[in-house]
Amino acid sequence: MFDILKDLIFSSGVVSLTGGNLVMWLVAFVLLYLAIKKQYEPLLLLPIAFGILVVNLPLTYLMEPEHGLIWFFYHYGIELDIIPPLIFLGLGAMIDFGPLIANPKTLLLGAGAQAGLYVTFFAAVLFGFDLQEAASIAIIGGADGPTTIYLTSKLAPHLLGATAVSAYAYMALVPIIQPPIMKLLTSDHERKIVMKKLRPVSKLQRICFPIVTAMTIMLVVPSAAPLISMLMLGNLFKESGVVERLTNASANELMNIITIFLGLSVGATMTAGTFLNPKVLFIFFLGLFAFIISTAAGLLMAKFMNLFLKDKINPLIGAAGVSAVPMAARCVHKVGSEANRRNYLLMYAMGPNVAGVIGTVVAAAILLKNLG
Amino acid sequence: MGTDWSKVMEVFTSGIVGVFLVMILLQILTQLSTRIIDAVENRGKGSDADPDLPTASLKD
Q: Is A228 touching B (CB cutoff 8 A)?
């Protein structure tokens, strides 16, 4: 009887627990709290947190290559680049490019925000990260989860958990991080600028946009093809209006299923052994830096454009160039309406916001071309 | 191993320039395509209204 009990205890995970495991449980519980109680990006943070928790239970071997359940999700979903493009398919089926088509100049704001990403790349190299790691950290500034995961899985897979959690965490914290930067870099007068009404966009223009964009970007930067083709296919489903079932499947069922696998797989990469070292923890600091610089670069780009534009744009919309759809646009609207209650900036900010998604993909593709 | 700073500068500059070039190209093509579509659609609207004109001129 004693031997059976002894055997049970020594074959259990309890005796194999390490201090690192306990710290990771704490990280998981904090993320669970943020997801459930604060509702910060719960769709992603909840499965990520649970993935962290279960992978740090000893002897479960959930991430054991060729054997573990979550390893199969990770291997086929992320290592083989299936999940991020499928997320983009769903995203495309949800995005409205109308405000961008109505005011194509806002594409430059999506490009401006990416400047922050390259500044962070430079900073990360200065702090001792190798080029591939620096690129994976810099892409956090794009505030685009699937692109961050896509690039990191190709350039620095050992940093996947940290960069993905960092990207999603900062996306959730947009309403806290961005307003002080917006107020610092714009005057009260600039925040009050009322923009010219957007022109109407016809159905044919909406249908042509994903086709033209997909062809242009894939011809110029072929390495962007997996993400941009899926994004534009999803949008073509939506705008064509003839494949409602496919649109709904992409935006709802498929997106939800993929989100589960993505969150769980990303969380499961965060074992105590890979996560708890100063270098990885420093990524969170650099990720925040990337996000702040990208926001500032978008704002400054808008101010720069105003030097040449007859119809001035409200520079706040430049901050939406960091993707984080639609949270960054909502944040712009909120700060704008604080300055001028009658200023309704949401639709104007959606232009640079979706341009930011395209810009981040292009930036990631260029990094991949240079460093992959 | 030392950092290859020439590679860092290459990635940095080609990245910034590349993103701007692609986005400017996309902006031009989007403006061009929307103008062409506008013109085609306006012409379509015009020709929808046109059938009355010859009739009127014949009556005259």
A: no
